[in-house]
Amino acid sequence: MLPAWVPGRVVLEALGAPAEDAVHGELLRQWGSSEVRRLSYGLRSVIVKHGTDTQFGEDAAYERFVVPLELPAPRLLYGGDGVIVLEDVGRVTLEQEPTEDGFLAAADLLARIRGRAVPGPSGFPPERVKELAGRIGRVSFDIGPLTDALAALHRQAPLSVVHGDFVPKNLVTDGTRWTAVDWPLAYVAPHLSDLYTLVRDAVAFGYERGPIVARYVEAAGADSFLVDRQLLVGGACFCLLALTFVVEEGVRTIPESEGWIDPLLAELADLVEQLS
Questions:
Q1: Average pLDDT of the segment spanning 222-245
Q2: Which CATH superfamily is domain 93-275 in?
Q3: pLDDT tens, residue by residue, 45-55
Q4: Which helix (H) or strand (E) holds 106?
Q5: CATH class label, 8-88
Q6: What is the model's pLDDT at position 182?
Q7: Which sequence spans correspond to the domains of the chain?
Q8: CA distance 124 to 212
């Protein structure tokens, strides 16, 4: 039987299945704040997701960003009450097969996302730096250089969509095209935290930073000096958001995330120093 939270009628209609007991279910991911399953019947399949806390309301991100901007994301078939049903865009993630070509393709994908200019207001204005640092409560160094650099970026670069979790597990391929999934954290800002997290993971897998950044610069037609600043600021903003998540939610839903705090603080301090 399908989990009680799954909208059975929507799933049966999308799959062309005669009854719920004919549907095969596969658990893809289960965290404290989300559960993701692939449901299939014959050759058809859909992805269903139940989200709470920061994973709640992904359909709103679709309504505000994905649909009107035609971003490279799975088609939304249903959304409501923390549950979404999506088209299945592929069975292989960049996390499962972390190839160099995959990371370069992800840089191309990000250039497409960032190429859609969005009117304000910004989802990460300069004043938010101090607010998040206060909520974290463990930032003992001067965060001012980040505030100043973020303010400068708001004058120098357009606002575009930030996916908010642009990491290998959320980059999916069907063997032909790449798609970004998992959009509940999306917002608008002038920085490049998405490119930062992509490069961060590529380096962890043993790949060089340079070719991936260069691929993005070429695909986006961007100024390399500005991209370097957007990367530093984006990295610091990523660390602030990640730390805020851990101290306010992660320690409850993902107990092992307590061990992420000190490394993230050190990473944030290094990025802020580079902005000084």
A1: 98
A2: Aminoglycoside phosphotransferase (APH), C-terminal lobe (3.90.1200.10)
A3: 999 999 988 88
A4: helix 100-114
A5: alpha beta
A6: 96
A7: 8-88, 93-275
A8: 25
